[in-house]
Fold this sequence. Notes:
Strands 7-6-15-18 form a four-stranded antiparallel sheet, with no helix packed on it. It is mainly beta. It has one helix and 19 strands.
Amino acid sequence: MRWGFSLLWLAACSQRPELLPDGGALGGPVAFRISYRSANNRPLYLQTADGQAWLSVLDGSSELRIQPSCLRCPCGQCDGCSACAAPLPKVVQLQHLSSSSWTWSGLTYPSEGRCSGSPVECYRIRSAPEGSYTARFCYGYGFQAEASGGQTVASPQCDSVPFGYPGDGGVVSLEVCDC
């Protein structure tokens, strides 16, 4: 009986949200998926760079920084932090009946100024507040190769999907049909 009580207690404790240093609670994760169907087998392209770049999360009209970047350093950890050079942009190709997904933890990485004596930006990790957000999925039907070796989506188009955070554990998705 003692063992059963312990399991019940652990299950009850796991339902509490994780508290973060900023006082917020982690309500994530939220999965985002872009799916593609094509009647003519034309590929679809998604932008990547320092992580995924085909998805943005907006709070009203402001875009949230939803992933850390090696181009910036955590505030308070600037000493010894060496920001990376800007990574080359690349594309991911989706074929007919394929998809790409990315999971957001519910954390944001807003800029909090610059590291002391440095041009490098610093950020603090924050939890996204409960509320209404918009997922902006961007894609294109072609890409351009750059002289630097990078690739960029040509003539990108973007579609928006509203969602609530924290969600119900579901997936925020967009289906693109080139039909």
